[in-house]
Design a protein that fits this description.
about 325 residues; mainly beta; Immunoglobulin-like; 3 domains; 5-stranded mixed sheet; about 45% strand
Length: about 325
């Protein structure tokens, strides 16, 4: 099984084989291949789950773990032997260019090896990881299908395509999603479970089925086919492609993104540093699925300071602002 669960800016997958010992006083001991691991940060049990420090585990796999304070994220890099040697780079690109020769469909689909995923497909995964949805993308004549679960608070979450069933008028993609048990050892870091397969049939429409919950609805996209640019700001149900926080703007700014909100309406305000709303409007996305939105927002001529673009959905229940996204801009 060649799948990947992305941890914040994870460069490669960490396969963790650990044991955990919990005594009556709820202290936690981490055992790696029979060796007790020591850490400056003690593991803890929270809400029935065991949370362990990421660094002490990652370093046992010879991974570099660094903190990116500017972007508020952890970076784990297991590709420590990578160099700028042009010969090795050329060889790597050659391997990727020949990936299709290794495809052998079984039961109507193929799950590609992680190290053979083309760069364009890997970028697509990286751009999509924060959005729970299903997508498909044609590449070199092959039909790639991606299932993403969005952002999860810890490790232990997973998603897997278990079966592909071709019928006369559609293809059923059967999916199983799992989450950690109450006493399961998990990494204390955000993760992004996904599964990627290639479907043999290029023509029939896809129908996604959760094998544990037949009533589950899998979100897709309206207005775009696939996510092809990074998300620069987000809340749970509003994802923004542009503008980026800190962008320098003049008289207008292009606002683009995805949303799945009540009545498909995304409201937005321009707010000055002292909290004054100098402009407000709304755009249309979708409800149920993810709808693409694109607007050109005019900046009032008398604004010449930092301003915040605030996006939100209005609650049907009490009119409060939900799923707020704030993007500071420099005028």
């Amino acid at each position: 099984m060649n799948k990947k669960i992305l941890t914040i800016a994870v460069v490669a997958m960490l396969s963790i084989i650990l044991a955990v010992s919990v005594n009556a006083l709820s202290s936690v001991t981490i055992i790696f291949d029979g060796e007790e691991l020591e850490s400056d940060t003690e593991p803890i049990i929270e809400n029935g789950r065991t949370l362990v420090p990421l660094r002490v585990i990652a370093e046992k796999f010879d991974a570099d773990v660094t903190w990116d304070g500017d972007n508020n994220k952890v970076v784990i890099d297991t590709d420590k032997d990578k160099t700028d040697n042009s010969d090795s780079d050329d060889a790597n690109e050659s391997d990727k260019s020949n990936w299709e020769e290794k495809i052998e469909f079984e039961d109507g689909y193929y799950r590609p090896e992680q190290n053979n995923i083309p760069n364009e497909i890997q970028e697509w995964i990286n751009y999509s990881k924060e959005v729970p949805a299903v997508q498909e993308k044609q590449y070199e004549g092959y039909r790639f299908v991606l299932v993403t679960e969005g952002t999860k608070p810890t490790g232990g979450y997973d998603v897997e395509v278990t079966e592909v069933v071709e019928g006369s008028d559609q293809i059923d993609i059967k999916v199983r999603s799992t989450e950690p048990g109450e006493d399961e050892l998990v990494t204390e870091a955000l993760t992004y479970p996904y599964d990627l397969i290639i479907v043999e049939n290029n023509d029939l429409p896809l129908n996604f089925i959760d094998v544990e919950d037949p009533d589950r609805y899998f979100k897709s996209f309206i207005g775009i086919d696939t996510i092809e640019s990074p998300i620069v700001a987000e809340s749970e149900y509003i994802k923004v492609f542009s503008p980026e926080p800190g962008d320098e703007i003049e008289d207008k700014v292009k606002l683009t993104g995805l949303a799945s909100v009540f009545e498909g309406t995304v409201s937005y305000d321009l707010v000055t540093e002292d909290g004054e709303v100098v402009y407000k409007d709304h755009t249309t996305a979708a409800m149920g699925d993810w709808g693409y939105f694109e607007e050109e927002v005019e900046i009032p001529s008398d604004v010449d300071e930092e301003i915040t673009l605030k996006l939100y959905s209005t609650s049907m229940k009490d009119g409060s602002k939900q799923f707020v996204v704030e993007i500071p801009l420099n005028v």
